[in-house]
Every structure is written in C-alpha cells, then in structure tokens.
Amino acid sequence: MAKLSIKSLNMKQLFFGLTVMVELLFFLCMQYGDSLITAMHGLNFWDCLFSGNIRNFYEQNSNAVLNSGVYYGNYSAYYDFGIYIIFAIWVFPLWLGQKILKYSLLTKVIGPLWVKLFTVLFLAVCSFLIKKILETFELEKEQIFDALYIFITSCITAVYIFGFGQYDTVTIAFILLGIYLYVKNKMWLFTLVFALALPVKFFAIIAYILLLIYKEKRVFKLILHMAVSLIPIALLRIAIPFAGESNTGVFATLLFSNVLPVSISAVLFFVVMVVLCAAVYVTKPSDDKLLNNKRIVYISFLGYAVFLLFTTPLPYWYLYLVPFMAMLIAFDKNKLIANLFLEAIASFATVFSHIFVHAHCFSSAIVNNTPLASIIGNKPEINVMFPQLLQKYLSEDFYNQFGNYFAPVFSSVALGAFALYIYINFPSSKKYNLVSDEKVLTDIYLVRLLMVGCLMSIPVLCFILG
User: Fold this and answer.
1) For 254-277, how does the pLDDT look when each residue is reduced to its tens digit (9 = 90+)?
2) Whether 169 contacts 161, CB under 8 Å
3) Phi/psi at 430 (5° precision)
4) Of all helices (H) and strands (E), which one includes residue 340?
5) CA-based torsion, 436, 440, 442, 448: positive or negative
6) Sign of the dihedral defined by the CA atoms of residues 386, 79, 253, 298, in that order
7) 369, 316 contact by CB (below 8 A)
C-alpha cells in the first residue's frame, strides 16, 4: 500500500505539472477585456492623484476611453475604490512607461500580459494562504497537496484566471487571509481584513457574516463587529463619491433576479440565505477540532454556493467556490476520488454552459493582441463565437435543432454535481463506501488535464478556424 501511495503521489505531481504547463501555454493565448478596463482606470488613478483631482476619480473615469487592440470603447469606473488602488499600484510601471514613451502600453502585447500576470500573482498568494490554513488545521502534507492540486487545476481556475486573467483572486486572497486569522482566533484582525476586503469587492461579506455568526453568538458584539467592518467602505464612498452608476445597482439587479411566485414577492437568494444564516447561528462550534475546522470551510463554501446557484451571476464569479471545494477535499482521503470526480464534472459543465450563455466572453476577440496573435496575425475585424463555429462545421440544421439544449443540459449536470458534492461533504461522522482504486485516480487526473485543455482551446479554435 505504501508503494501504491507513493506511485499515486508521483502521478498526481506529474499531472499537476502537465496541467499547469497547459494553463501557462494558454495564458499567452487570450486576454479578457474586464481586467484591461480596470487597469485603464488604475492608470487614470495616477493622473487624478498627481493633478490633485482624486476626489473626482469616478467623474474623471466616466466613459473613459480604452484602446487595447480589439478592446476599444468607453468604459466608466463603477467598482468600489479599493480595487482601483490595488490595480494602480500594479500598473504604475505601465503608467511611467506611458509618460516616457508617449503612448499607451495597453496597445502593445506587453501591457495586457503585465496586467494578466497580476491575477496569477494573487493566485499564488491564494495558494500560499490555503497551505497556511490547512497547516493550521494540522492536515498531512499529502492532503495539503491535494487541495493545491484541485485549486490550481480546476477548470474554473484554468479558464478564468490563466485564460481570462480575472482578478477576483484579489478578493479571494483577502477572504482566505481573514479565515486564517479566524482559525487563529484573532477575531478583530479577522474583522479588519474583511473590512479592507469589502471596498475591493463586496462578495467578501458572505463569508464574513457566516463565519462571524458561527463563532460569535452575542448580538451586540455581532453588531459591533459588523459596524466596524463597514467603516472603510463607508469612508471611501464619502471621500470619493460615485458619479453615475455604481456596482451596487448592478449587483442588486443580479441578486433580485430570481423572485418566487408568491404574493409577498420573496427573493429566492435571500430566502435561502436567511435559512442558512439562522442554521449557522444556532449551531454551536464543535469541541472536535477536526470537525469544527471542516465546518468553517463548509460554511464558507455553502454561502458562495447559495449566492451562485440562486442568483444570476457572471461566469467568473464561480471562482469563489474553488478554494473552499479544494480545502474540503483535503479533509477526507476516503472521499478523494469521489470529490475529484465531482469537482471535475461540476467545473467543466459550469464553464462549458457559460460558453453558450456568455458566448461573447469566449469569442475569438479575446485572442487578439496576445503573443499568439502576434505570431499568426491579429484579426480585429473578426469576432467568432463558439456557437457560430459549431454551426459552420456541424451544419446549421443540426445546431438549430440541438444547439439550444447545450446550455441547459450542462447547467443541469453542473447543478447535480454541486448538489452531490454538498451532500457527501457535509461535516459529520457519517461514513460512505466510496471507490478508492488508485487506477481510477490516475484516470481522473488524465481526464482533468484533457478537460482543461479542451475548454481553454475553444477561443483559440474560434480565432484560427472562424
């Protein structure tokens, strides 16, 4: 058994390395526009600061012009100010280069690559924090490696971090740091970190509230912690007021998108979240250290699962699930194969459904102005989406007959896999008789690699074949 375990670990390391190589290859082949838009506002931050006009940052960035290859247009800043501060620090070298060279580096390959590297840097920070949290849980090295393998090679991570360069890893890093302090029982530092996270992206509030009410049951102390956590975002909004639309309105529209057909017009997300909060509040922390640690991770995972499954989220918000799914997998070796399988199915089906629901996000346009495009030639005049590619190569009649079923079928598969994952990872002493054949484990590693390669190749195929 010892030899088998060593062999299994070696295979895992092999496929981990191969998957990361695939991710890094496609890292050079695509660039989603959202991070470029935010980078542009980060560049404008320095102009506003040095002109003494930082208080009017949002007004100055209303309909700001982005020129980055295929991404050309007017985009207003509407996120909270924290994310622009962080982006401004990262893109400062680009701002200096822009002033010296008298043209925007975002129009060259180096600019978007530098912006995209920012998201991978924070992915490394998140990986480090996952490792620190699991070490605090006193898990074995192999279990920690399992979690890191899942986190970095998940289809969701591969596509939305290495492919799109989406910067939700910044917020996730704050969340994980807060959880690390929470596990260390440093509650005010925990609140401070989440207070700093909220002006970056407000999604951190979900994990913060659930974990706070799990440990702290005194109502007035709860109110005090929550009030303190809102101070930085309140001060920033007063000091640097929004001009025009803010992210609050956008998020509210998504949160209130699923209304139950009852007379009181109840919103499905809030109904489920209230039930979850009530269940967490009345649950006493366990004296069993391992069980309690698993609950901490499970509660956080469940909070984001409720948010994503009962609202109308943007595709890359599913990144908030991945670190918690990865850490849950580390807790129970008996469930490793089942969890690897379920995570692979859930993440692949989720992203594949997004390719049809959010087809424009995966079009050939995101390949322009990348190292790959600089080799084979940019195609700024062409914007081919995957459904169009299927119509071209599978026949239009076939796609018209079956094409509308792709998104709902794969969304259903993803929902089923997530539901089963939630069920079998519920923190309890219940045992399951699950498959543990290491040959199956090797097959799953290979399948996960192929899934990543398949999904990440789709925009490139649209670019080359479109």
Assistant:
1) 666 666 655 455 678 888 999 999
2) yes
3) -65, 135
4) helix 336-357
5) negative
6) positive
7) no
Alpha carbon 37 to its chain centroid, in Å, reads 18
Q: Distance between CA 184 and CA 351 in Å, rounded?
A: 35
End-to-end CA distance of the chain: 51
- CA 264 to chain CA centroid, nearest Å: 33
Check if the beta carbon of residue 7 is closer than 8 Å to that of residue 441.
no
Whether residue 111 contacts residue 293, with contact meaning beta carbons closer than 8 Å, is answered with no
Tokens representing residue 271 in the block: 């109904």
* pTM passes above 0.90: yes
Neighbours of 271 (CB within 10 A): 15
Are 19 and 153 contacting, i.e. CB atoms less than 8 angstroms apart? yes
Retrieve residue 43's tokens. 């560049």
Helix, strand, coil percentages in the chain from 3-state DSSP, rounded to 5:
75, 5, 25
Structure tokens at 211: 């974990």
Q: How many CB atoms are closer than 10 A to CB 168? A: 22
Q: Where are the alpha helices (DSSP H) in 216-267?
A: 219-229, 231-239, 247-255
List, for residues 183-234, the tens digit of each pLDDT value.
999 999 999 999 999 999 989 999 999 999 999 999 999 999 999 999 999 9
C-alpha span between 156 and 304 (Å, rounded): 15
Of 14, 4, 27, nearest to 159 (Cα)? Answer: 27
- Angle, CA of 447, 30 and 32, to the nearest 5°: 110
From 334, 335, 327, select the one nearest 302 (Cα to Cα).
327
From CA 370, how far away is CA 128, in angstroms rounded? 29
| Domain residue limits at 367 | 2-465
Q: Which of 88, 60, 56 is nearest to 76 (CA)?
A: 60
Q: What is the total count of domains within the chain?
A: 1
Amino acid at 139: L
